[in-house]
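Chapter summary example.
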Amino acid sequence: MDRQGTTIGFIGFGNMASAMADGWIVTGAVPADHMVACANRYEALVERTAARGMRACHDAAEVVEAADLVIVAIKPHLIEGVLAPLAAALAEKPVLSVAAGWDCARYGALVPGIRCLCTVPNTPVAIGEGVIAAERAHTLTEEERALVQELLEALGTVVEVETRLLSVAGTVGGCGPAFIAMAIEALGDAAVKYGIPRADAYRMVSQMVAGTAKLQLATGQHPGAMKDAVCSPGGTTIRGVAALERAGLRSAFIQAVDAIEG
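The structure predicted for these 262 residues follows.
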């Protein structure tokens, strides 16, 4: 299978599916006219797909018929009702799931013989800078797995995890952007408080976050060592770090994950 000749079909075209489509378009990994999608509100779907150069389908059956690779991107509680009637057709196509809470075994029970891989991406896939948690267990053929891996790598970093860890990996990667966006907003507010224009504040903070993350990825340094490198004895940064410790910053992030996984 060749990615440039593969037609990708989205069952559901909400925020995550849209982000994936945008990522493939912006990176040139998949031509827009090789992607189709269906959604509940057809009129709105037509507008959103046309803006990208994609084709709108009336229902999931039309998507499955048109696609070489089917992406399940609907709400988890809708999957059984939407996919069960299409079991025979789906068993003939590779399936990539981006629905939280569903793993390969669960799909296999719903659609016997299904060839699938379950993932949890995050919204930065829209610019090819995402992280995609992927279940290590899958039922794709070797050729299909290679194609899907290539497609996902065009959207960002793929991290394979055991089935039991897919949920928490999806939580950290998928929900994390909301947590970091809150931190960006808060630091931006602090900059505005002291007179920096808001647009400049957000630009500075976002670049700082991006640069720090890229530095960690490039060097493999422990985050604690990176923090220590900025904290001079008796200096300004260590006073800020102490204030964050008093406010329970680390505990707050851990509790956020606990609130979702618990």
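To summarize the output: The two ends are 40 Å apart (CA to CA).
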